[in-house]
Amino acid sequence: MASHGTDQIIVQRLLAARSERDSRRALLASGVIVLIQFTVFLLIGVLLFVFAQHVPLLAPGERADRVLPLFLAREMPPGLAGLLLASIIAVAMSNASGSLNSLAASSVLDFSRLWGKSLDSKSFLKLSRRMTLAWGLVLMAFALKKWGPLLEAGLTVISLPFGSLLGLFLLGTLDRSANALGALIGMFAGLATILCVFQFTTWLLRGTS
Question: For 27-37, what is each residue's pLDDT tens digit?
Answer without folding.
Answer: 888 888 888 98
